[in-house]
């Protein structure tokens, strides 16, 4: 296997360190042009098997990330999660071994796109568990980033982009999530409610795609929401119909987070640099986390499914983007 | 509007009556061959609007139940739920008014396919809530079938065929459910866990479609499971790839209902009669409920999305179908 990308990392603070939980994507090294080789985790044997797929004309290889055959679809790479640590938030040391590897029947295609929420000294890590059974969101908890406890699938397939709010609100926990529908719905953002962070209900549609806008194709939560003066600020991702991914902001009511106060008309950030425009899957900036410190949103984002970028934006600039009055005017 | 079918009814006992909660499907009466007319519930105005759809060549009218356009899909009919009552389980009096009508943003295409679970004197009604936002499963509770309380969406889209077990097992409640996946998974049966019947987690895949069998296309829970000597007996539905719906049985472990003990190799019932073979959507038998009484499963099932049939099968016959030893031999 070779690493083809390190991207879409969850981020948090632990003691005096910034922790990134990296998505590391690997694919088999293959010199045979006659076949594709895809990695599959076999839960019954607890090992990764490399499976050859013939280049049949009826198979669809048009998306570099997926091979579509009439029988089933395969991912061309497999991801695991790995910790990187930093004392300044910029220079990171990547651990030499995977932190979390695929395990069990729901992860045979890999684990992806973690988000980390800290509540009462427990870190709740949500991530996409991909298998031939569908795309579930699973949860793992840790208190120290050394010992991890698997908590099972908290959302049934298909669901991804789950970001849990970092505090209970009116006695309930809330999570943003993104179901995919087969029949009528669009890939849009929903909000769910929980008493224990494991069992979720009261699913409500939160925001939809906007025809003609930068986010008219698909949207989902990116960062764990954080609190500002006016409510909960969510840094989310939206793609247009040509799969160009940008970053926007969403402001939710402080006490009733299922109520939308404001939403970016224009993105707060677009793919611009070489590494954002080109890569394994180009024209993509995709955060899985942001830190809210020093009046800034410090955004760690996947660039083109290949690398990780870092951007700082002032909360004031996000306020302006959202059309909110400047705080100075309110005071 | 005209009624085009009464089918897929939930069933339970209340006092000395058998209660059916009927799915009543209606469509607009339309004399204009130039257009289709579909009913849409508008939640903001709380009324049903009849919308004309041109018969454009690029629209797909091949499925009598659905109109597919590039922008969105429509249902050709709209369903509500209505009570019928009987003292003998055979002769029913249908109430003159709808019991539950579409309401709110998740039901603009109608409400369908109720299941009724009795726990501690409360009836938990789960049903499919269909809208342009997707297919959710919602819950309504009642104690008397006069006053009803809406409990919101308990499963996010797409999900249907939810049947809640009628008792807690080892301190948790369980529900069978059927997600639909856009990317990798099949329409198959899952099981979820809950502490309060409203918030659900620990989603696990239970059984899949079986290539070459009568249930190789799609499967889902039908009746609310009931307890027999060997475990929990589920009367489920399975369709083959040509949409022929049959009824099968599934036996789950009494204490660990996520473990499968036995499953019908052959259906326990297949479409045979005229009214099962032909109708609005023919070749379909589809139960949403069964009563377990007098050593019988009394199955109320939708026939061809048009009418409701009734069948009795002995538990002994189901045991034989499942390949279980006859109880007499065990004693």
UniProtKB/TrEMBL annotation, chains A, B:
What Gene3D superfamilies would the database entry show? Glycosyl hydrolase domain, family 43
Entry-linked Pfam families: Glyco_hydro_130
Superkingdom to which the source organism belongs = Bacteria
The molecular function GO annotations come to: hydrolase activity
InterPro entries listed in its UniProt record:
Glyco_hydro_beta-prop_sf, Mannoside_phosphorylase
Q: Which UniProt keywords apply?
A: Glycosyltransferase, Hydrolase, Transferase
- Family, as annotated: Belongs to the glycosyl hydrolase 130 family.
Query: Which PANTHER family does the UniProt entry name for this protein?
Result: GLYCOSIDASE
Q: Which named protein is this?
A: Glycoside hydrolase family 130 protein
């Amino acid at each position: 296997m070779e690493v083809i990308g390190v991207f879409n990392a969850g981020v948090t603070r632990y003691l005096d360190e910034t922790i990134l939980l990296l998505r590391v994507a690997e694919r088999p090294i293959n010199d045979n042009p006659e076949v594709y080789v895809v990695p599959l985790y076999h839960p019954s044997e607890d090992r990764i098997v490399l499976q050859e797929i013939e280049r049949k004309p009826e198979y669809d290889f048009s998306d570099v990330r997926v091979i579509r055959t009439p029988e089933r679809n395969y991912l061309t790479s497999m991801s695991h999660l790995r910790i990187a640590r930093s004392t300044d938030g910029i220079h990171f040391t990547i651990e030499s071994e995977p932190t979390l590897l695929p395990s069990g029947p729901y992860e045979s295609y890999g684990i992806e796109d973690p988000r980390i929420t800290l509540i009462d000294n427990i870190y709740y890590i949500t991530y996409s568990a991909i298998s031939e059974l569908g795309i579930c969101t699973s949860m793992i908890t840790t208190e120290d980033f050394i010992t991890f406890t698997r908590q099972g699938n908290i959302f049934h397939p298909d669901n991804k982009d789950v970001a849990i709010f970092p505090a209970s609100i009116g006695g309930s926990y809330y999570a943003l999530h993104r179901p995919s529908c087969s029949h009528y719905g669009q890939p849009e953002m929903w909000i769910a409610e929980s008493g224990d962070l494991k069992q979720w209900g009261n699913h409500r549609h939160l925001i939809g795609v906007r025809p003609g806008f930068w986010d008219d194709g698909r949207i989902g939560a990116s960062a764990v929401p954080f609190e500002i003066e006016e409510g909960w600020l969510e840094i989310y991702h939206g793609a247009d119909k040509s799969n160009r991914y940008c970053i926007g902001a969403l402001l939710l009511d402080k006490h009733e987070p299922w109520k939308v106060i404001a939403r970016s008309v224009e993105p707060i950030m677009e793919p611009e640099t070489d590494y954002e425009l080109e890569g394994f899957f180009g024209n993509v900036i995709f955060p899985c986390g942001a830190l809210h410190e020093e009046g800034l949103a410090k955004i760690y984002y996947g660039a083109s499914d290949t690398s990780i970028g870092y951007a700082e934006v002032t909360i004031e600039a996000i306020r302006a983007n959202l059309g909110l009055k400047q705080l100075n005017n309110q005071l």
